[in-house]
């Protein structure tokens, strides 16, 4: 059982900044995220795109914002449960909560802050009629352990960075890699495209374009994919394989959060914005893009503000009646849980004679 | 102020809405759909309008002359599902006076 003060669901910018604000109040945080890396949409959808409305940053790449937030909160030693989706919320008799992920990891905390953005990212599944019957029997949407594919015949479908990058990576591990895309053009980074070209020319990647996987063959276990190719004349044929990995990106779904007994409106969680962004369940807060209230704006900068107020309310719940006044980091410095201290340099006092 | 234009949007339930869209607020079709709440929040415009998610895919039903498709929209549609000959991404269609009479149907959620 992982124990913490504030359990944050979602490791995007709002969740990461909450770690910093909580740390100033000496509260520890643990974050759960369905993605294998922190950053949320900033790392999953648009890492290389600039953002222009982060106060104090005229322009910052989404990836760099994530890096900065990780750096800013690191002295408060947040814990992470990554690649797992928060599935259930159980309120205990003492008012604390246990949150369990889809992999059974349990987390115990007096405060839960949902910073889930548009929901957890789920793989987008191509429209192949018997796809789901082969899930975990030859069809995987996310590559967790590349070694799993050693010596296997792998078919990858997709035309973006992940399809290109995994084709390159697996070409050294799998016995055979086939990349199938509906177009001859790919959408990935230029050097990935060049690398795939090189691997295709040296026979290490079998490239089939423009083509589509339209069916799967096998009995319980995957034996081959049916490929429909549309160059000059349409033709359909089978490509033998042990694994089919469709990589068509991820799309966010509110998912299990919708069953936690929270008040939901327009795919978002209703909160009390007059005070602390608490939900209808006392002790459970919703901050950032995942919440809604009159006048709500889905902006990262609004998420930062909401995270800050949430931490103040969390402090009051965890330390009932305890006195506290807001401190400025410039005045009091930042004391990390790792023993580090950041502080403003002392003023030099020197006499002029 | 520039004139509003009239456009028709068939939502994912098949209901047709003829609405007025402003042409002076730099809005695109995806944003117009959101402003009229013709698709539930969180099911359209997920990437914010960068042609990076295809959640605003629509089928163009009128013969309105549309802005030419750029490479990023074309590439995104190559990875989207339910794509047809007349598929476009709503976020790449700006509301200009030339869009008067535009008629589209929203593609299914995927």
TrEMBL record, chain A:
Q: Which cofactor does it need?
A: FAD
Q: Which GO terms describe its molecular function?
A: ferredoxin-NADP+ reductase activity; flavin adenine dinucleotide binding; NADP binding
* UniProt entry keywords in alphabetical sequence: FAD, Flavoprotein, NADP, Oxidoreductase
Per UniProt, the enzyme's principal EC class comes to oxidoreductase
Recite the UniProt cofactor note for this protein: Binds 1 FAD per subunit.
The organism that produces this protein has a lineage beginning with: Bacteria, Pseudomonadati, Bacteroidota, Flavobacteriia, Flavobacteriales
Name the positions where FAD binds.
14, 33, 41, 46, 86, 121, 289, 330
The catalytic activity, as recorded, is:
2 reduced [2Fe-2S]-[ferredoxin] + NADP(+) + H(+) = 2 oxidized [2Fe-2S]-[ferredoxin] + NADPH
Membrane-crossing ranges are none
Q: Which species expresses this protein natively?
A: Bizionia saleffrena
Q: How does it assemble?
A: Homodimer.
Please report the stretch or stretches of sequence annotated as the FAD/NAD(P)-binding domain.
Answer: 5-294
- Annotated InterPro entries: FAD/NAD-bd_sf, FAD/NAD-binding_dom, Fd--NADP_Rdtase_type_2, Ferredoxin-NADP_redctase_2
**EC id:** 1.18.1.2
The protein here is known as Ferredoxin--NADP reductase
Instruction: Indicate the family of this protein.
Output: Belongs to the ferredoxin--NADP reductase type 2 family.
From TrEMBL, chain B:
Q: Which PROSITE patterns match?
A: 2FE2S_FER_2
Q: Which InterPro entries match?
A: 2Fe-2S_ferredoxin-like_sf (IPR036010), 2Fe-2S_ferredoxin-type (IPR001041), Adrenodoxin-like (IPR001055), Beta-grasp_dom_sf (IPR012675)
Keywords assigned by UniProt?
2Fe-2S, Iron, Iron-sulfur, Metal-binding
Q: Per the UniProt entry, what are the Gene Ontology biological process annotations, in alphabetical order? A: P450-containing electron transport chain
Extract the GO molecular function terms from the UniProt entry: 2 iron, 2 sulfur cluster binding; electron transfer activity; metal ion binding
Residue ranges of the TM segments: none
Q: Which co-factor is required? A: [2Fe-2S] cluster
Start and end residues of each 2Fe-2S ferredoxin-type domain: 5-110
Task: Please state which protein family the record places this protein in.
Answer: Belongs to the adrenodoxin/putidaredoxin family.
The protein, known as: 2Fe-2S iron-sulfur cluster binding domain-containing protein
Query: What is the organism of origin for this protein?
Result: Bizionia saleffrena
- Show the taxonomic lineage: Bacteria, Pseudomonadati, Bacteroidota, Flavobacteriia, Flavobacteriales
């Amino acid at each position: 059982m992982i124990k913490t003060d504030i359990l944050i669901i979602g490791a995007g910018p709002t969740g990461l900044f909450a770690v910093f604000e909580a740390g100033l109040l000496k509260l520890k945080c643990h974050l759960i995220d369905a993605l294998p890396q922190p950053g949320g949409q900033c790392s999953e959808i648009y890492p290389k795109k600039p953002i222009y409305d982060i106060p104090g940053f005229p322009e910052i790449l989404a990836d760099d914002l994530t890096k900065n937030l990780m750096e800013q909160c690191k002295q408060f030693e947040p814990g992470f449960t990554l690649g797992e989706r928060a599935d259930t919320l159980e309120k205990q008799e003492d008012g604390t909560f246990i949150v369990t992920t889809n992999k059974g990891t349990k987390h115990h905390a007096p405060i839960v802050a949902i910073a889930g953005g548009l929901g957890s990212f789920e793989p987008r599944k191509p429209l192949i009629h018997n796809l789901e019957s082969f899930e975990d029997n030859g069809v995987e949407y996310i590559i967790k352990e590349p070694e799993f594919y050693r010596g296997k015949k792998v078919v990858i479908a997709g035309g973006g960075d992940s399809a290109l990058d995994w084709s390159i990576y697996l070409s050294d591990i799998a016995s055979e890699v086939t990349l199938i895309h509906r177009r001859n053009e790919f959408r990935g980074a230029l050097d990935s495209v060049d690398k795939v070209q090189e691997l295709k020319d040296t026979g290490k990647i079998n490239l089939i374009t423009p083509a589509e996987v339209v069916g799967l063959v096998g009995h319980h276990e995957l034996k081959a994919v049916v490929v429909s190719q549309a160059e000059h004349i349409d033709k359909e044929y089978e490509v033998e394989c042990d694994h089919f990995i469709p990589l068509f990106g991820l799309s966010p779904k509110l998912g299990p959060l919708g069953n936690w007994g929270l008040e939901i409106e327009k795919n978002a969680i209703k909160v009390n914005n007059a005070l602390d962004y608490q939900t209808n369940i006392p002790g459970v807060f919703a901050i950032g893009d995942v919440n809604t209230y009159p006048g709500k704006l889905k902006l990262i900068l609004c998420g930062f503000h909401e995270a800050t107020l949430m931490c103040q309310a969390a402090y009051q719940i965890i330390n009932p009646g305890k006195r506290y006044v807001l401190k400025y980091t410039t005045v009091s410095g930042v004391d990390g849980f790792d023993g580090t201290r950041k502080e403003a340099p002392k003023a030099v006092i020197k006499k002029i004679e | 102020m520039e004139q509003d234009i009239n456009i028709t949007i068939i939502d994912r339930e098949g209901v047709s809405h003829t609405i007025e869209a402003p042409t002076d607020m730099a809005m695109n079709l995806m944003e117009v759909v959101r402003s009229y709440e013709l698709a539930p929040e969180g099911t359209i415009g997920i990437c914010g309008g960068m042609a990076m998610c295809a959640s605003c895919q629509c089928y163009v039903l009128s013969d309105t002359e549309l802005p030419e498709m750029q490479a990023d929209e074309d590439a995104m549609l190559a990875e989207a599902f339910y794509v047809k000959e007349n598929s476009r991404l709503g976020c790449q269609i700006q509301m200009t006076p030339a869009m008067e009479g535009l008629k589209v149907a929203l593609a299914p959620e995927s």
